[in-house]
């Protein structure tokens, strides 16, 4: 228990130091751009493919229920709201944690094992400024963009199932969506969620890598912890954020 | 100004309830090659980390250029580290950067030199270690000896006043060992730096060191020039220098009586 509290404190300290050293990341933005490529661009394939299938399944399941109540024309609204409010940010965060989060943890853990971080320290270069902060901002910038892409591709997948496959009216699909999806209460809330998930998942991945014992087993366990803790954090934060958003 | 660039004064350090160093005193004069030797687990590498300010002593002081290392704030420590270069045991090259970029790293991070000047300096440093032709290779494409030489070029990139070597000969073939040995001495003399070598390779270290400290049981067990230590009759020094199997450092780890343990097993 004491060790868990200690780790929580160490994680908070790393987050604070990352924010303090962030100025250098923005002065040398090419470092952040490089990490955006590795965390964001390299995650595009899994995000797009997953979004496509999630959208298609949503449309199938949604039509199956809605047509019992004669509301099959609302399938577009169902798909859009589910993706934009919840599934887009949450599923993107879970996929990000599994793909980019584990890569970050493994990379930093191995840098620690091979003394690269110590070498940086001895060269009077802060590893937090040079390694941690650029990756943090890359994750925070990438996540909302990936979540938006997820929602867009998911809606496309839902359209392809609903309209050409099932036969829902195309005009009704898009017009109902346009009328019922609100920018402020739906889209902005989704962006806020994806931003918060980006901070949480990236920071967890960075801390686990930084704190991993410098052994093969230590790095392996750290990558597993990254996925587990990130996933649980995303689901927990989703509940908290949704409660606040719906209450407001 | 004192002739000693690094001074260790009554240093004690321990962790997890075990004292690794007890009242150690060492001095490292400017321009000399000083070796710290001892068995595995005697705390040699820890001494380098104490000098570099990565850990703080429990008692005593480490002074670098007159400044007490563990009393410095972050900026002070970084200022001291700019005077230091360190060669890690396995090189610690940045695996996502080429040989050229590895050596250029400290120049790009810590200076405002233009790229054209950095290019010339990097090629000069690589030429000094004989690897100018390998400047575009990635670390994974290098042999162990080549990686060690690139790490050495990186350690001297900013012409430091102190260069620390952590087991520089470990795992090298005889030719690479000879090359690294020669480079350490020639770079030390060319740059006028102070070299601190942590090693347990007696032959290579004695070839190039001006002074040697032997560390055992948390204390300085012996010290002197390589010639003095080769003639030493102190049991630990004799066992270490001549590679004797048994002596003050026993071959057998403490255990119960052999015969009674075997007989107990067989009942």
Largest sheet of chain A: none
Task: Give the distance, in angstroms, between the N- and C-terminal Cα atoms of chain B.
Answer: 72 Å
- Total number of domains of chain B: 1
Instruction: Let me know the CATH homologous superfamily of chain B.
Output: P-loop containing nucleotide triphosphate hydrolases
Rounded radius of gyration of chain A (Å): 20 Å
* Through-space gap between termini of chain A: 36 Å
Any idea what the radius of gyration of chain B is?
21 Å
Q: Could you give a short account of the major beta sheet of chain B? A: 6 strands, mixed
| CATH fold-level name of chain B | Rossmann fold
- The CATH C-level name of chain B is Alpha Beta
Residue-averaged pLDDT of chain B, rounded? 88
Number of helices of chain A: 10
List the keywords:
heterodimer; A: 248 residues; mainly alpha; elongated; B: 267 residues; 4-stranded antiparallel sheet; 10 helices
Can you walk me through this structure?
The complex is a heterodimer of chains A (about 250) and B (about 270). Chain A is about 90% helix and about 0% strand. Chain A is mostly helical and about 250 residues long. Chain A has one domain (about 1-245). In chain A, about 45% of the residues are buried. Helix content of chain B is about 40%, strand content about 25%. Chain B has ten helices and ten strands. Chain B has helices at about 45-50, 75-80, 100-110, 115-130, 145-155, 175-190, 200-210, 225-230, 235-240, 260-265, and strands at about 5-15, 20-30, 35-40, 60-65, 65-70, 85, 160-165, 195-200, 210-215, 220-225. A six-stranded mixed sheet of chain B has the order 6-7-8-3-9-10, with helices on both faces. In chain B, strand 1 (about 5-15) and strand 2 form a beta hairpin. In chain B, helix 3 packs parallel to helix 5 (about 145-155), helix 4 (about 115-130) packs across helix 5 and helix 6 (about 175-190) packs parallel to helix 7 (about 200-210). The longest helix of chain B has 18 residues, at about 175-190. Chain B is globular. The model of chain B has no long low-confidence stretch (mean pLDDT about 90). The chains are: A mainly alpha (about 250), B alpha/beta (about 270). Chains A and B meet through helix 6 of A and helix 2, strand 6 and helix 3 of B.
């Amino acid at each position: 228990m004491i060790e868990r509290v200690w780790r929580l404190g160490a994680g908070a300290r790393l987050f604070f130091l990352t924010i303090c050293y962030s100025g250098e990341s923005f002065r040398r933005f090419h470092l952040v751009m490089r990490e955006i490529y590795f965390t964001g661009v390299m995650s595009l394939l899994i995000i797009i493919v997953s979004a496509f299938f999630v959208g298609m399944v949503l449309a199938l399941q949604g039509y199956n229920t809605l047509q019992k109540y004669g509301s099959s024309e609302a399938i577009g609204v169902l798909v859009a709201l589910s993706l934009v409010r919840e599934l887009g940010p949450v599923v993107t965060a879970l996929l990000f944690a599994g793909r980019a989060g584990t890569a970050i943890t493994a990379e930093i853990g191995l840098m620690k094992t091979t003394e690269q971080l110590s070498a940086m320290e001895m060269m009077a270069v802060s590893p937090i400024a040079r390694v941690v902060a650029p990756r943090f901002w890359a994750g925070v910038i990438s996540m909302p963009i990936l979540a938006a892409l997820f929602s867009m591709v998911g809606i496309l997948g839902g359209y392809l199932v609903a309209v050409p496959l099932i036969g829902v009216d195309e005009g009704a699909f898009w017009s109902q969506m346009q009328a019922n999806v609100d920018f402020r209460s739906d889209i902005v809330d989704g962006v806020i969620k994806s931003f918060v998930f980006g901070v949480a998942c990236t920071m967890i991945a960075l801390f686990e890598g930084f704190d991993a014992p410098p052994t093969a087993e230590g790095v392996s366990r750290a990558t597993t912890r990254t996925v587990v803790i990130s996933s649980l954090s995303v689901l927990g934060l989703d509940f908290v954020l949704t409660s606040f958003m719906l209450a407001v | 100004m004192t002739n000693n660039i690094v001074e260790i004064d009554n240093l004690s350090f321990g962790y997890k309830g075990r004292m690794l160093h007890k009242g150690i005193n060492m001095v490292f004069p400017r321009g000399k090659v000083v070796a710290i030797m001892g068995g595995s687990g005697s705390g040699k590498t820890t001494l380098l980390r104490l000098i570099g300010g990565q850990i703080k002593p429990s008692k005593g002081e480490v002074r670098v250029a007159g400044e007490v290392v563990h009393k410095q704030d972050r900026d002070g420590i970084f200022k001291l580290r700019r005077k230091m270069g360190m060669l890690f045991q396995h090189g610690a090259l940045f695996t996502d950067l080429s040989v050229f970029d590895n050596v250029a790293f400290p120049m790009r991070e810590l200076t405002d030199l233009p790229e054209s000047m950095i290019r010339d300096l990097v090629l000069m440093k690589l030429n000094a270690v004989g690897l100018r032709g390998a400047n575009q290779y990635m670390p994974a494409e290098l042999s162990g000896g080549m990686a060690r030489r690139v790490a050495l070029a990186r350690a001297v990139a900013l012409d430091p006043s102190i260069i620390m070597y952590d087991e520089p000969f470990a795992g090298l073939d005889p030719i690479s060992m000879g090359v690294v040995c020669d480079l350490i001495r020639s770079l030390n003399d060319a740059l006028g730096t102070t070299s601190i070598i942590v090693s347990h390779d007696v032959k290579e270290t004695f070839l190039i060191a001006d002074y040697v400290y032997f560390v055992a049981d948390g204390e300085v067990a012996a010290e002197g020039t390589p010639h003095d230590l080769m003639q030493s009759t102190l049991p630990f020094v004799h066992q270490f220098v001549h590679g004797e199997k048994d002596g003050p450092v026993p071959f057998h780890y403490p255990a119960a009586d052999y015969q009674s343990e075997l007989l107990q097993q067989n009942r």
